[in-house]
Write a structure and sequence with these properties.
The protein has about 280 residues and is an alpha/beta fold. About 40% of the residues lie in helices and about 20% in strands. It has a 5-stranded mixed beta sheet with strand order 2-1-3-10-4.
Length: about 280
């Protein structure tokens, strides 16, 4: 039979003391970590609440101008995620944290409402726009209206499936009976900003986008404004997302879009007042 080797008591005591010391060190380390993660004591100040806003790319300049006043008045930090409204809609459906959605068309908001992610009675139409033909500065191809688009070698607009300005371009050209004829000339852009860049760099001869896209730019110009009688009104729609952890603040931001201050900024940036129909 194997004999059990006895460990000297003195050695066992040393091991126990070492273990005890280690446990104390771990406890102190954990305590230290906890102190580091705790919010620092402040004297009356509160950290701003983060509000995630997914907004159509065409709104970027005006959101940049109006955000600071809202942030200061409400102790909030607005974090914008810009893109084509259809892409943003898919992100929200996929679970991207979003407190408010600003779409360049009602369709994407309606889809999220049908999905149960937005309350139908919480939406607000806050701006309109004009559909225009954009050309590079100087208009080298001499494009002045829809009848001249056939002169172009390449055209651009947004992807009609994802970008509202592309959907409006398709609607307009279809109404004129030109869509199928011009379709082979189109290079579709991911969003309004990319449409503008294609035109401004002269990579295409003309593009179809929103009037606000050309406001303040010297590298592209508006060659033609589509009559309002030829397309349905362009509407920008905003809504808080149901799952937001800050519903009151999200609703307040959507309401802020209707304020005199924001409406003035929108018009100054080339947008139109919200259509009533």
């Amino acid at each position: 039979m194997a004999r059990v080797k006895m460990v000297p008591l003195k050695a066992t005591a040393s091991v126990m003391r070492a273990l005890a010391g280690g446990l104390v060190a771990v406890a102190l380390l954990l305590t230290g970590c906890g102190a580091q993660n705790a919010a620092p004591a402040t004297s009356g100040s509160t950290a701003p609440t983060m509000l995630n806003v997914s907004a159509a790319a065409s709104l970027k300049s005006v959101m940049t101008s109006i955000a600071p006043a809202f942030e200061k008045a409400n102790n909030v930090k607005l974090v914008f995620n810009y893109g084509a409204s259809g892409v943003l809609m898919k992100q929200i459906e996929g679970g991207t944290p979003t407190d408010a959605f600003l779409s360049a068309a009602p369709a994407q908001v309606n889809t999220l409402t049908a999905d149960g992610l937005i309350s139908a009675d919480a939406t607000e139409t806050f701006a309109g726009n004009d559909l225009v033909i954009l050309v590079p500065a100087g208009n080298p191809k001499g494009i002045h209206g829809p009848g001249d688009l056939s002169k172009a070698t390449k055209l651009t607009t947004g992807d009609p499936i994802a970008a509202p300005h592309g959907a409006k371009a398709k609607e307009w050209l279809t109404n004129l009976g030109l869509w199928n004829t011009l379709l082979p000339k189109f290079v579709f852009a991911a969003n309004a900003a990319q449409t503008d860049d294609y035109v401004a760099r002269g990579e295409v001869d003309a593009g179809i986008g929103f009037a606000s896209d050309a406001k303040g730019r010297t590298d592209l110009e508006v060659a033609y404004t589509v009559p309002s009688s030829e397309i349905r009104p362009i509407k920008y729609v905003a809504a808080p997302i149901k799952a937001t952890p800050s519903p009151a603040l999200a609703e307040k931001f959507v309401t802020y879009l209707l304020s005199t201050e924001t409406q003035t900024a929108l018009v100054d940036a080339g947008f139109k007042p919200a259509p009533t129909k």
